[in-house]
Structure formats: C-alpha cells, structure tokens
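Below sits the subject:

***
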Amino acid sequence: MPLPSSARALKKPRLDDEVRFLRSWIEKPLHMGAVMPSGKLLARTMAHYVDVNSDAPVVELGPGTGAITSALVERGVDQKRLVLVEYNPGFCALLRDRYPQAKVVQGDAYRLRDTLWNVLSAPASAVVSGLPLVTKPMLTRLRLIRDAFTALAPGAPFVQFTYAVVPPIPKSLPGVSTEASERIWMNLPPARVWVYRKY
C-alpha cells in the first residue's frame, strides 16, 4: 500500500540527507563520520546532555545535514545559541538554510582553537561532536578535547558518539570525569555516547 502524501513528504528530507551523506562519503571518506546521518535516538541521546536553561553557546562539531542539530532544537536549545562548525561547504549552505538563527562556521573542527578564536562571546555550555574521532590518531583526538575544554565553561560537557566498542578518548585523562550511555542498538550501526567534563 503506498504511503499517504504527508508521510512521503516527511520521509523525503531524510532520504535527501542520506543521499547527500553518501555522496560526500564517496568523495572524501575520511572526512565523514558516517555514511548516513545519525539516527533519531542517537541524536536525542546526545542532546539530552545539553543544558537547555543556559544562555551560553552550544558548539556542534561536524553537524553534517543537521540530524543532531535538529534534536538539540527539539529539546529546547534556542537556535541563536548554536555554533555549528562544519568543514563541507555544501553542508554549511544547507545548515544556514535550515537553521537561519544559528551561527554556521565553515572550518576545521580538528583545529578548533583557530576555528573558534573570534566566534564565541562566552564560554560554551556544551560541545557536541559528530566527528569521526576513531579514524584520527590519538594525539589529534587529545588536541581536540584540550581545545574543546578551553572553549567550555568548567564542568560543561564534551559529548561524543562512537560506533567503536572502546571510548574515542581515554577514560583516564587527569582532572576529567567520564560517563557513557548504554549502547544504542536502534542506531545503524549501534553507537554509544561518551561525555567528558573537566573540573
């Protein structure tokens, strides 16, 4: 039985985003964290760790087509608080269209200090990352989290998902607390959310 036109209309943006992701992955596989956008349950789990009552910026790294961005907005994060750091210029244009009140920064999240040096007006209340950390050398990962903590308010979360079984950043960093979500089996592939806080 064919889908009603309203159901087809709801499915179309998701299908379009999947095609965009696949095309970008084929062109530059090491720049993409996944072949497909994050699933809704994974995105909602990541958004859960963000304080909706704060006025401070929320930085999202590698938002792609905005699957996690959408979950942040649905959770109640004001678009004006969002600072979206995206490398792909096509995704930047899409994000500016979908989230006109957010600040979209075309730049390299792995050089976060340089990318954000004149962007944030206050320490961030969260950094939410969809970057493919496990494809990067450990020194690159550690530099990223160091730079993220520089941008964050004390105790604010750095939220990262991974498909890997092991944490994307070691749990034993000095002065950093770590927690992990349950494995999200409904995501394809299954994923886990890791949260790091520096005190």
